[in-house]
Specification:
Length: 166
């Protein structure tokens, strides 16, 4: 049992580090979105994809370890959480380290979620701005129509978006 807990602790520590790295990239992504640096954003996304792939493998291994721990403890693997495991290990070796790593993992995941939500809002705002700009450009291409006091149309020769004086 102690070996399983130690292996789980090591795995959770690695996942917490991955989440921390992803959070740093998410912060960097915020700056790239604000600066509209598409090339840098693409590089960040490639690194993120690599880390997410690594984390998915770690997550599969974590589930396997949790099933093994649940079998040893004769409990349901689907309901066994790290917090619950920490409670079950009260006074046993590895409990404190597992509790600390679990708390770090939760903190890293929460920070990553916060930054991802912030980036989602930044990207939505950017898309709204682009949509607004495109609509503004389209509307400027339609000829302006002016009317006389009698209701007759006055033709307008220029439909330039900006009038420039030299």
């Amino acid at each position: 049992m102690a070996g399983l807990v130690d292996e789980l602790t090591i795995l959770l520590r690695e996942q917490a580090e991955d989440f921390s790295d992803l959070a740093a990239l998410a912060s960097e992504k915020s700056e790239a979105v604000i600066k509209n640096d598409v090339e840098h954003l693409q590089k960040i996304t490639n690194i993120e994809n690599s880390l997410v792939g690594k984390n998915q493998k770690s997550e599969r291994r974590r589930k396997e370890l949790m099933k093994d721990v649940a079998a040893v403890l004769n409990t349901d693997a689907d309901t066994l959480t790290i917090s619950h495991l920490v409670e079950l290990l009260d006074g046993k070796p590895g409990r404190d380290e597992l509790a600390e790593v679990g708390a770090n993992l939760r903190h890293s995941a929460d920070e990553l979620n916060r930054l991802n939500e912030q980036n989602r809002k930044l990207i939505e705002n950017s898309l709204e701005y682009i949509d607004f700009s495109m609509n503004l450009m389209r509307s400027s291409q339609a000829p302006a129509v002016y009317y006389t006091h009698d209701g007759e149309e006055i033709p307008v020769e220029s439909s330039a978006f900006f009038d420039a004086k030299q």
